[in-house]
Specification:
By secondary structure, the protein is mainly alpha-helical. The chain contains 45 helices and 14 strands. β9, α18 and β10 form a beta-alpha-beta unit.
């Protein structure tokens, strides 16, 4: 065959349908024949039946010989596209497939495929902050259009596809104009936007861009006039006002909002300020239920929402599954999600929004987005502080991806809407007890309200769990059980568990128990949560052993989303081994779910029921004692973790443990860190619980004990939230000690978030409080932290002043630990000021003190700073020696981040000393550590990890490109010889912190 022609084929549908073999355009025949080719190309390698092709060419009025004519078209296309194919040889381009045809054409040979690839890559680049490169790709993508798509083709399919592709082109054009404005080309796009708004007078996105471009071009009056025009048109023609976004922009232009200026917008833009790696592929769906049965009609309805297999949707598909608690919304959603997961190759996101959580711990949209950003692989230090910027980053990461997003147990539309993606390739499944009318009306969600199972489905439900033989033996009792359970899946599951665990019980006995309790419960009517389910719960509860029943209702006091076995033991005041047995009893009775090994959660209705029972079953004093035991367990276990995470920081003063409370102990740093990470939602909930239950001492102490964890893992939002709650509670209780500690904690969180002015204000307050309390240690701590805040803010003179004051106090109080840290900080400040002799003197003195007090952590940091100073002074041998000593210290304590930093610096000095091979080795080792940390624990204090992997790769690439005869000595071969522009900073409370500095330029040797 003519393989040359086949391999050089290319096609166009973004304009007239055309094809080329190399540079020669092919004659594709009549318009109807071109329709056949266009349909095959648009199906992207998937079969098209003859009936579909007939409809595409002739619509609902095909000629009698339509099928015959269609096969003739296919035959002619084969001859045109494969002119050298020999008789008897199978076609390779237009291929027969079942009752139809398919086109085997790679997407990069069709202009539509090229266009979509460029647009997707542009989205990725824009999300990564490379806006200029994204704009170039968008220009290239749009230049591939030659007019109206499928121009000149007849038939209903061509008309529909023309409309769809026109919308795609216009959306892409909007994006390109938006990037132009973002890049400061606002004046250049005004003419195009003016024409487009005339052509599309009701398209608010275009009008918004035009208003912004006019405003930034100094034409405020015209921008406001543009808004008045569209408002008049919408009110006159549609009877509605413009959307919220357009109205807000109008108000901001009217008041000359400074944030609309180009410089401010670029500074706030997450796409410009963040370097986001390629998102991860999460797979977060909970396990499917092995015994799932029924709901076939509902599954068929939601399955019909999706396009045919392999087709891409034109809009985001949103399925809102509603119904009362216990009706099986989550079970159905998870089951369907597993069935269709392979259609969403970029992954699945899942979150329980806890919209109806009795504890009030509903997940806010901002918190959910942060959780999703973490699942998508965004390092904590690269998540912007603003919730709006976080939402924009979340949508950018989903752009162009095919993902399934399951939002479980939503409270209302406002909780869901910020979590919706902006791209059309995603599926969103929402479950809620609310009807989510706003989501249906405003966002095009497809509602599916679940009702009770049909009698046949309920029978099948019991059959899968109890067995056919028992149901067949007692059909009347089976029907009565189904009736008493109201065909509610959760109620049926509890009864089935009772029957399955007692195979000798006749079903009639179970039916009689349900019959006898009838009337003690509220009805299901009106979607009320207190329904017949409570009857089943009550019966199941009464069947428990007395200790298990007590543990169950005490769980109603717990505010967190789940609970561990040791925490449950503290709540009940029982030994752990006994508690584990009780938890197993509750799990088997389906009153508790073990969602992870050793971790348990209550269904929403069961949590309500437990909370009601604890009020009736336990006197107030015992309820208070149970809460006290639980909160003290969290506090003392957090303190045990604290000693591993920050072993030399001042311990939090604790009250004695109440009887029956046995906190955990840890043997290793990693073990302590893992516990904190697992329990983080419960620890945050415990701080709030302590605050709201008038236990200020626990609230501020627990927050203080979590300092090291929040710091190491950069959970800055939780840190600031709990610290502020603790501070407010301590103030309300007039607890001056708690207020002083909490001020320091709030300031530490603010410093980590680079909100230096606020941090400085809190630290000044802390100094006053500590002075009044006579807390010299706390005062020194606050002074050192104040110096650190000034140091990070670049106010070096102030930093020196307060660090020296802290140093003096440490010496007066013979606190060698604090003295060593203050000396290291002071040396770092002198280094930045260019006072190198004083810096070296301070740092060398710091080493003496640090070694005497056994502070290997800060000793490694100090040695690294000294190495950098020696490098700047061209003392390469001394620098190398200090760096190797620093590496020894880092490795002794497992400080991987410090090790990577020092290896990076060591590579620099080896290169400066004319040792490119040694530089290559050090940078390679540094790169391995940086890549490990980018995928593991987050960088400290939420700050960028420096050096970053890309920076190291660039140095290695430039070094690898050199050969002995291609130019100057490696030290002057265009390689960057400046040290990393960061150095760890230490304070009395913060023994190691990455901090951004101004770049320094080292003289070349």
């Amino acid at each position: 065959m003519n393989t040359v022609c086949e391999e050089s084929l290319r096609f166009a549908v973004l304009g007239p349908v055309r094809a080329w073999c190399g540079e020669r355009e092919l004659d594709l025949g009549s318009p109807q024949q071109r329709v056949v080719l266009a349909v095959l190309l648009l199906r992207r390698g998937r079969p098209v039946t003859v009936a579909e092709l007939v409809d595409a060419v002739w619509g609902d009025r095909p000629p009698p010989s339509a099928v015959s004519v269609l096969r003739t078209y296919a035959s002619r296309l084969r001859k045109v596209l494969e002119p050298g194919r020999e008789a008897g040889e199978s076609p390779r381009v237009v291929v027969s497939a079942a009752d139809g045809y398919l086109a085997r054409v790679p997407e990069h040979l069709v202009d539509l495929g090229v266009f979509e690839q460029r647009v997707a890559e542009a989205r990725r680049l824009r999300a990564a902050g490379e806006v200029a490169a994204a704009a170039e790709l968008l220009y290239a993508a749009l230049e591939g259009w030659e007019g109206t798509a499928l121009a000149g083709l007849p038939g209903p399919l061509a008309e529909a596809e023309r409309s769809r592709l026109a919308e795609v082109r216009l959306t892409t054009l909007e994006t390109r104009l938006d990037t132009d404005i973002q890049l400061g080309r606002h004046s250049e796009v005004i003419a195009a936007l003016t024409a487009l708004t005339v052509e599309h007078p009701l398209r608010e996105g275009l009008r918004e861009l035009l208003m912004l471009a006019l405003y930034r071009s100094g034409r405020q009056a015209e921008a406001l006039a543009a808004y008045r025009r569209i408002r008049s048109t919408m009110v006159a023609e549609l009877g509605i006002e413009p959307g919220v976004s357009l109205r807000e922009l109008h108000d901001r232009i009217l008041t000359a909002d400074p944030s609309l200026d180009l410089a401010a917008a670029q500074e706030a833009s997450p796409q410009e300020s963040l370097a986001v790696e390629q998102p991860a592929r999460p797979a977060q769906l909970p396990a499917d239920l092995a015994a799932f049965t029924g709901r076939q009609g509902e599954l068929a309805r939601i399955q019909a929402l999706l396009p045919d297999e392999g087709e891409l949707p034109s809009t985001v598909v949103i399925s809102a599954i509603g119904g009362m608690a216990g009706i099986g919304k989550t079970t159905l959603a998870v089951h369907w999600a597993h069935r269709i997961a392979d259609r969403y190759p970029d992954g699945q996101l899942y979150i329980n929004l806890r919209g109806f959580d009795p504890s009030g711990s509903m997940v806010s949209p901002a918190e959910a987005i942060r959780i999703f950003l973490d699942a998508l692989g965004v390092p904590a230090q690269r998540i912007p502080a603003s919730p709006d910027a976080q939402a924009a980053l979340y949508r950018s990461l989903l752009a162009g991806r095919r993902m399934l997003i399951l939002l479980d147990n939503a409270r209302d539309t406002e909780q869901v809407r910020p979590l919706l993606p902006g791209c059309p390739r995603c599926l969103v499944i929402v479950t809620s007890r609310s009807q989510l009318i706003g989501l249906i009306a405003g966002d095009g969600a497809h509602p599916l309200t679940l009702s009770a199972l049909t009698p046949a489905e309920a029978h099948g439900f019991l059959l899968r769990r109890i067995g056919a033989a028992r149901l067949a033996a007692e059909p009347q009792a089976t029907d009565e059980i189904i009736a008493h359970c109201g065909r509610l899946p959760l109620a049926l599951a509890i009864v089935a568990a009772r029957a399955a665990t007692h195979p000798g019980f006749p079903l009639e006995a179970i039916a009689k128990e349900l019959r006898d309790t009838q009337g003690s419960l509220d009805a299901f009517a009106g979607g009320d949560l207190t329904t017949d389910v409570r009857a089943v719960f009550s019966w199941s509860y009464e069947a428990l052993s007395a200790p298990a029943a007590r543990l169950f209702h005490l769980l109603g006091l717990h505010r967190g989303p789940d609970i561990s076995a040791p925490a449950a033991a503290a709540l009940a005041g029982l030994p752990l081994r006994e508690t584990r047995g009780l938890l197993t009893e509750l799990t088997r009775a389906h009153l508790l779910t073990e969602h992870a090994p050793g971790r348990y959660t209550l269904h929403d209705l069961l949590r309500v029921y437990a909370a009601e029972r604890v009020v009736t079953q336990e006197p107030p004093q015992e309820r208070d004692r149970a809460v006290e035991r639980l909160l003290c367990w969290y506090l003392h276990t957090a303190d045990a973790a604290y000693t591993h995470l920050t072993p030399h920081r001042r311990r939090v003063p604790l009250e004695p443990l109440p009887p029956g409370c046995h906190p955990l102990a840890f043997t290793a740093h990693d073990q302590a860190l893992k516990w904190c990470e697992t329990e983080r939602p419960n620890l945050v909930a415990a701080v709030h619980h302590a605050a709201t239950s008038r236990r200020p001492g626990i609230a501020w102490r627990l927050t203080a004990a979590l300092w090291g964890f929040f710091y190491l893992r950069s959970h800055l939002h939780d840190w600031l939230d709990t610290a502020r709650m603790a501070l407010d509670t301590a103030r309300d209780a007039h607890d001056r000690t708690g207020e002083a500690w909490s001020l320091n904690d709030v300031a530490a969180a603010l410093t980590a978030m680079r909100r230096f002015d606020e941090a400085i204000d809190r630290l000044r307050q802390a100094i006053v409080h500590c002075r009044e309390l006579g807390d010299m240690y706390g005062r020194c701590q606050a002074l050192g932290n104040l110096g650190n805040a000034y140091l990070q803010a670049g106010r070096l003179d102030k930093a020196v002043e307060y660090i020296r004051r802290a140093l003096a106090l440490h010496r007066i109080n013979a606190n060698t630990w604090g003295e060593g840290i203050a000396l290291a900080n002071l040396g770092d400040a002198y280094r930045r000021l260019g006072r190198f002799d004083e810096a070296i003197a301070c740092l060398e003195q710091a080493l003496i003190v640090l070694r005497a007090s056994g502070n290997r952590w800060v000793e490694g940091v100090t040695l690294d700073i000294l190495g950098t100073l020696q490098h700047r002074l061209n003392r390469h041998d001394d620098a190398i020696d200090h760096y190797h000593q620093a590496l020894d210290a880092h490795r002794d304590i497992g400080n991987r981040r410090g090790e990577g930093q020092t290896l990076y610096h060591l590579g620099d000095v080896h290169l400066a000393a004319g040792e490119p091979e040694a530089a290559h080795t050090s940078w390679r080792q540094a790169l391995a550590i940086v890549e490990e940390l980018d995928h593991g624990p987050r960088p400290l204090a939420g700050l960028p990890l420096r050096p970053d992997a890309e920076e190291i790769r660039g140095k290695l690439h430039r070094l690898d490109e050199r050969t002995p005869d291609t130019g100057p000595h490696p030290t002057t071969a265009g390689l960057e010889l400046t040290p990393s522009p960061t150095h760890p900073t230490t304070t009395t409370t913060q023994p190691y912190r990455h901090r951004a500095e101004q770049p320094e330029h080292r003289p070349r040797p």
